[in-house]
Amino acid sequence: MLTIETLKEENYDLLIIKGEIDASNSVLLDEKMQEMKNTGSKSILVDGNGLEYISSAGLGVFMSYLEDFQEEEISLKIFALSPRVFEVFKILGLDQLIDIYETKEAALEA
Amino acid sequence: MNYQLKIYCKTTALADLRSFLQATLRELKLSDKDQHQLTLAVEEVCANLIIHSHQCNGSDQIKLEVKESPEKIIFEITDKGKAFNLLDYEVPDLKKVVSEKRKGGLGIILVKTIMDEIEFESDKGQNTCRLIKWFRS
């Protein structure tokens, strides 16, 4: 089960992910990321608090946007990942490529 | 202990696979982190088979057996699709994955990093992939 909600805040867009992302539903994440890019978002904050599981299909979606975001100066930050999900980002070295914070406040201040 | 599961080759079966693995691994004395990572590695191999070897053909099946001994746990995955030998694939460079905007390749890094040993054999149309994790005290 996966739900992805988007919220437009004053200075950023919030992407709230709840549930599990695998090869059956990673296209949902792709669509939401594309939508944010297309609507001209310059700052995307991903709330990972409810993200219980993510396989390479979902991680690949984040990775596939990194270059475009860099070129278009779109900032991508993820916050509140559970320790076990964060560990998966670390195995791949994605914690070196994506800005990951413990809390939303820390992500906003950075 | 020995546990078995058969799933049909569709990506929606991956959630069933995770439930089975979570229930099975919960009985072993593994940390939350290890349970999570073993589930992920097994799912990555099965997702690869479903998508690349069976093209999501819902009438095909994959069998998973979990075998536990005091020193190791073995996940044996058998199927009758196109042989996909993980060992033939090099771990891709992460920077290359980013610059080529590839969505694939990451699963192989995860499986090879999480598991201690990977075995593969193909015989008379049946492929067997064994993922092995040694227990460390």
UniProtKB/TrEMBL annotation, chain A:
Domain STAS: 2-110
Top-rank taxon, per record: Bacteria
Pfam families found in the cross-reference section: STAS
GO molecular function terms noted in the UniProt entry: anti-sigma factor antagonist activity
Protein family per UniProt: Belongs to the anti-sigma-factor antagonist family.
Protein's UniProt name: Anti-sigma factor antagonist
Annotated organism of origin: Algoriphagus iocasae
TrEMBL record, chain B:
Top-level taxon: Bacteria
SUPFAM superfamilies membership: ATPase domain of HSP90 chaperone/DNA topoisomerase II/histidine kinase (SSF55874)
Pfam family, one: HATPase_c_2
Domain (Histidine kinase/HSP90-like ATPase): residue spans on this chain: 12-133
Family matches, as InterPro entries: Anti-sigma-factor_SerPK, HATPase_C_sf, HATPase_dom
Keywords: Kinase, Serine/threonine-protein kinase, Transferase
GO molecular function, one term: protein serine/threonine kinase activity
Gene3D superfamilies: Histidine kinase-like ATPase, C-terminal domain (3.30.565.10)
Enzyme Commission number(s) from the entry: 2.7.11.1
Coiled-coil residue windows: none
UniProt name for this protein: Serine/threonine-protein kinase RsbW
Origin species: Algoriphagus iocasae
Organism lineage string: Bacteria, Pseudomonadati, Bacteroidota, Cytophagia, Cytophagales
